[in-house]
Amino acid sequence: MWKFSVRRIMIMIPQLFVLSVLIFVLAKMMPGDALSGQIDPNIDPARIEEIRQEMGWYDPWHEQYARWIGGVIQWDFGQSFRFKMPVTELMGQRIENSFWLSLVTLIFTYLIAIPLGITSGRYNDTLRDSLITGYSYLGFATPIFIFALVMLWVFGFQLGWFPTSGSVTPGLVPGTFDYFVSKVYHLILPALSMALITTYSTIQYLRNEIIDTKQKDFILLARAKGASESRVYNRHIFRNSLLPIAAFFGFEITTLIGGSIFIENIFGYPGMGQLLIESISLRDYSVVTATTLLFGMAAVLGALLSDIILSIVDPRIRIK
Amino acid sequence: MGFLKVEDLKVHFPIKGGLFGRTLGHVKAVDGVSFSLDKGKTYGLVGESGSGKSTTGRAIIGLNHITDGKIFFEDNEITATARKAKSDIRKDIQMIFQDPYSSLNPKKRVLDIVAEPLRNFESLSRKEERIRVQELLELVGLSPESILKYPHEFSGGQRQRIGIARAVALKPKLIIADEPVSALDVSVQAQVLNFMKEIQGELDLTYLFISHDLGVIKHMCDHIGIMYKGRFVEEGTAKEIFNDPQHIYTKRLVAAIPDIDPRKREEMKQFRQEVNTEYEQAYNDYFNEEGLAYSLKPISDTHLVALPEKG
Amino acid sequence: MAANSASVENVDVKKKEIKSPSGLSVIGRELIKDKIALISLIFLILVVAFVYGISFVLDQEEIVKVDLFSIYEPPGEEFILGTDYGGRDVFGQLIIGTRNSLSIAFLVTIMTGLIGVVYGLLSGYFGGHVDNIMMRILDFFLILPFTMIVIAFVAIVPKYSIWTFSLIMTAFLWMGIARLIRSKALQEKELDYIHAAKTLGTSNLKIVFKHILPNVSSLIIVTMTLNLASNIGLESGLSFLGFGFPESTPSLGTLLSYARNPQTLEFRWWIWVPASLMILFLMLAVNNVGVALRRASDARQRRG
């Protein structure tokens, strides 16, 4: 297992490097810079040039890259030109918001998917199974932004059960109980919207796994020895099928990132996804690079995590 | 003098592993094999599965890489040329495969399958090509009307005939037949074998016949080489191998051939047991510490045996 | 004994039947058995015919022209589906949007298919070091978060058209099909008909494209159909975020993006609901057809 992990991490390092170069080059290629159209037109263009010189705008790109990546390693992403504050500071609250949103989404996903997957697999080819399969298939075919819009429209606007934007009611003091409740309240609808339609892979995986396991010899043996049906499921089948689900958790991160961009923008939730879209339209390139890099790193680390967990669960993978 | 000559052929497959996928060791599928074929004759390679007989055949025609050794065909070295797509060697050496199902592309018509070698080496017009394919089908005993059918419309024996038609399309001199009948029904086996013998005379073919079935080998071959774990244990004419086996491994193989005469059943059983006991007792004498055979030593002009090294 | 082995051969023949070339009739049978897929297919044909047919008559310039006297008209006699904030006819935009979205989805599906199939075939067939390097590159593309990277690229390209937009999408979407085709090619190249082709003097490229390609064709068709569905979703998603087409070239996502304005979402359903339904139905229909095709190509799942 150690050998596999080390090899897997060594594959990751060049991936991270190429990712950072790609993002840096992308940001450099974006039309205009943070200064164009931003500074008071009365300021002498020569002065703008001077600022650009000072910022190292004209240095060779690899020097600029080295400076940038050096900062990144020390968790310093430079200054945001629009918000006039360090990017790190700007992102702090939003990373936290996105983290909670992702966590609650994951919890909802598993709370919905695991019972449904088990039911579907245990009673396969019954009405229950076809209903569940039908639901998860619909979720698979529905784009997240349409579903989220409908959820917001129905539960946010028409029924008025949930807030329609923000992450907390303004005016509450952080740390109080009301503040916490308000935060959770703001999280529920976005998280549920994402969770309800991302259950497809988990449900289908669990279903197929259980149907497969059901016919294996050790299950037949357990039954033959007189174990009750619920014991067979809880003690034998469930345990066998659930570990790989845990392993896919890492891959879920990529799905969550893609989804959060839509969810945060639709629900006006101040997280990283919203910040990314905002900063791209504002050409706030230091923020763009920072958010993209963090998202990319999260995806790379998620894949790493899953591979390592999988290699523990399923030794066959290690050989590859 | 030799028609096909194989000198000290070695085919090793690396075992990869470790942190960087380094080569940890080798599987020695073929480990120093030498033999030669005479024109117009059939040479049989026998051995259990994993003995390296198929690998030897595939290495000669260029499907497996060669770690070491040389191959001569009509006195020209072809060790490297056999690996190129368009060399004349391709025309002279052809192959018949074991599995008549997977050896024909299921998405192609018989016409395209049999014409494939013609298209690679000869520029015929569509009409000429059609006529040639029909001739070839007739030669292998299939109706010339079947050129527009697909492989799945034929039985296993018929498919194998299509494979043979394809192999002889370029008028090769040598055909490597890799277990050509072992995937077929027993009743069909004899048909295909007899047919192969027939066209051998007609087209002046030389066969390298690879099989695990000594009965089939006895029926087909003039010369025989017995392989075990990538090495030869014994080589000689069919008569020498079947009537006068010298190596303990050959003895056991020959003793295992079923006899159809029921009156001899007890006798055979007795004989097999004796050979088996001898095999177990003498195993350490006939094989080295790694369980491999020693090198061949001649005991007559044509008969070579991997006898234990003295001293 | 003889009877026994004959029956074994029969089973074998059945198993290989999937590989028989007469795939079209099997697909037809499967579609007729599967009513939902059949309805989906008819729906798709109708939509495509209508949308592409009518856009010869419809004047795109006219539809996207701002008309300040008829802003936010609810559905009525003059405008079947009302108007948007620029007084533009939503129904006309829906038709043109469907056409544009479909065109992009088709284009991206075909381009990713081409790249993916060639990449996968070469990687799988040649194997060894070539495969190793090609898979490392693919792995890297695979971990990139698609939405963000495409957004970043769209932001760079100063003036983009259907072509540049589809190229950018293609650049980050070819990996899935490439991986599938590669693993299929890895299996396929170990079969004897490939070895036979080699001994017959057929060149590597010919083997790849004339022997292996026809044998993975059903997998390609199934995967590309399913990809088409997801590409419709991806395009409208990007346009929804404002990183797809400009407003002058409406797509289904553009209409949806008006719903990012809470006022529109809450009170002017006629602008975004039809587009949502269109996307949903299109994706469902294409998926249904794709699933039926997958069943048809896999004898174990076949119904008909």
Automatic annotation (TrEMBL), chain A:
The lineage of its organism: Bacteria, Bacillati, Bacillota, Bacilli, Bacillales. It holds the Pfam family BPD_transp_1. Signal peptide: none annotated. It comes from Ornithinibacillus halotolerans. GO terms for cellular component: plasma membrane. Its main location: membrane. This is Peptide ABC transporter permease. InterPro entries: BPD_transp_1_N (IPR045621), MetI-like (IPR000515), MetI-like_sf (IPR035906). Belongs to the binding-protein-dependent transport system permease family. It is found in: Cell membrane. Keywords: Cell membrane, Membrane, Transmembrane, Transmembrane helix, Transport. It comes from the Bacteria. Gene3D superfamilies: MetI-like (1.10.3720.10). One of its GO terms (biological process) is transmembrane transport. The keyword Transport applies.
TrEMBL record, chain B:
SMART domains: AAA. GO terms for biological process: peptide transport; transmembrane transport. It comes from the Bacteria. Keywords: ATP-binding, Nucleotide-binding, Transport. InterPro entries: AAA+_ATPase, ABC_transp_ATP-bind, ABC_transporter-like_ATP-bd, ABC_transporter-like_CS, Oligopep_ABC_C, P-loop_NTPase. GO terms for molecular function: ATP binding; ATP hydrolysis activity. Residues 4-254 form the ABC transporter domain. Belongs to the ABC transporter superfamily. This is Peptide ABC transporter ATP-binding protein. It comes from Ornithinibacillus halotolerans. The gene is oppF.
Automatic annotation (TrEMBL), chain C:
Belongs to the binding-protein-dependent transport system permease family. The gene is oppC. InterPro entries: BP-dependent_transpt_permease (IPR050366), MetI-like (IPR000515), MetI-like_sf (IPR035906). This is Peptide ABC transporter permease. It is a multi-pass membrane protein. The keyword Acyltransferase does not apply. GO terms for cellular component: plasma membrane. One of its GO terms (biological process) is transmembrane transport. Residues 98-290 form the ABC transmembrane type-1 domain. It holds the Pfam family BPD_transp_1. It is found in: Cell membrane. The chain crosses the membrane at residues 36-58, 104-125, 137-156, 162-181, 212-234, 269-293. The keyword Flavoprotein does not apply. Keywords: Cell membrane, Membrane, Transmembrane, Transmembrane helix, Transport.
